[in-house]
Structures are given as C-alpha cells and as structure tokens.
Amino acid sequence: MLSVKSLPFLQHQPHALKSVFLSTFRSHTILSPSTTRRALRLPLTALSLLRDVPASPRSYSPTMSSSDQIIEHLVFFAVSPDAAPSKPDEMISGLRSLTSLDSVAHLTAGPIFKNRSSAFGKFTHMLHSRYRSKSDLGSYTGDPAHVKVVKESVLPVCDDIMAVDWVADVAGGVVVPPPGSALRVTLLKPKEGIAAEEKAELMRVVGGIKESFPELVDYVSFGENFSPARAKGFELGFIAVFPGVKELEALDAMGEMVELQKEKVRHLLESVFVVDYAIPQQSSSSL
Description:
Layout: H1 15-26, H2 33-41, H3 43-48, E1 69-79, H4 86-96, E2 106-111, E3 114-115, E4 125-131, H5 134-142, H6 144-154, E5 158-169, E6 182-190, H7 196-207, H8 209-212, E7 219-224, E8 236-242, H9 245-253, H10 255-263, E9 269-278
Antiparallel strand pairs: 1-4, 1-5, 2-4, 3-9, 6-8, 6-9, 7-8
Helix pairs in contact: 4-6
C-alpha cells in the first residue's frame, strides 16, 4: 500500500501535496509495474502535474530585470550533402565570430543535436541569438561582418534556410543561457482561421511547460514571429532551456505526461517543427 513512509520523497512535502499524490495513485485500481516505476522515479515532476502550488524556482544570476524584453533570433540551416566536409565547420566558425558585434547580447551556433521533425529533416545546423531591441537585431543583420559571413560561408553550402524572430519576456531575466545548456526549440504553424482566443490558449499551454515540469526546465521563451519572409509559415516560436542534455532527455522519458500536454493543443495546429540543440562550452557570449 502506498504511504508517505514507502515514498521517502514525500516526507518533506506539504501535507496537502502528500494527500493529493497518494489519493490520486490510490484511485487507480490497476497500475502497470512500468507506470508505477516511472511515477516513483520522477517524484517532483509527477507532483507538479497534480498541484496548484508552484515549485521553488531555480536560482539565477540574471543579467537583465524580469520586466525587460529581449528579441529572439533563430536561424536553421540545411547544409548540402554535397558540401565539402570542412565547409560546415567554416560556416559555424564564421557565425560564432559574430558574437563580437556590439549589437549582439548572446549568440551560439552549431550542429543540431536532434531534429525531431521528419518533414523538415534536412535542417542540420542552427543559430540562436538574442538582442536588446529590434533595432539591435537590424544592426546585426546589416552589419558588414554579418553580410560577409552569410555571403561567403553560409549561402554557398546551404540548400535551404529558415528563420524566425519574436519578442519575449524571459522568466528570471536570464539573457545568456549558460554553456552546456540544452535547448528544445519548437515552431508552430496554427491552422488557418483559428480564433484569437484559440491562439492565446495555444500560447498559454505551450508557455506553461515550466510550471508542468519545474524540476527539468530552467526557463522558457515564446512569442509570435514578426519576420514571416523566411519562416515557412510558422507563426509562433518557443524555446525551453534545460540545464543540460540529461534533463532534456529526462523529459522525453516521461512520454505519457508530455503527450498530455501536446493533446491540449494538437487540434489547433497544422504543422510543428522541433529540434534539440546543446550549447557548446565555448560559443556562448556574455553581455
């Protein structure tokens, strides 16, 4: 029989939390061994789906106040399979050199760790950068150093490029994800003609991953794309930042819980693009 003594991780939780967890599991007359093991291995994450009390946030070293906005800029590159083996590395080296530009608050570039979208499986590399304003993003785009890298190192080796930009409030005020962090980047294309209320609900559910999985996700960023020209119809962008690849993969191990989140918005979506990216130790800039 389930009890607080048999579940040591509950002993230091509030009484109301213990009661909800135990009553929920006792209400199921049949639980498969694999389901029970998964639940008991992931105590705080499982509890987060049952409670109204938010988990204690991780400690941050914010570089901007939580009320400040940032501009997210993501670019995805489909390197040609015919490109010489050295060319992708040259491209990434050129892109990383742009961290020295005054307009850039953060920039990282490298191979995609895992592309989870079969329809867009050709994309092999990505760039993620952040700016203090749209004006700074414009300065970066038009800077001669950026133009040179794109012309000489990117366009000659890429079969396709996709890019999105959005304005975001980042929880905790974090601007620069620490080296070694892992990102799950999701782009969403809502079904044509959905109501504004439905789009708002879509954003609410997607943005709520931090509250649903507080022990795994450091913080999230999401917003509406304001640069449609190269976005292939994707209107909404979302980034979940994890402490590392281990935490990102732990989320994947919770298949049933993740599917519950997806099911809430699946009927509103025409297309989804998802990739995972691990920030190299040496490629994250500082303010």
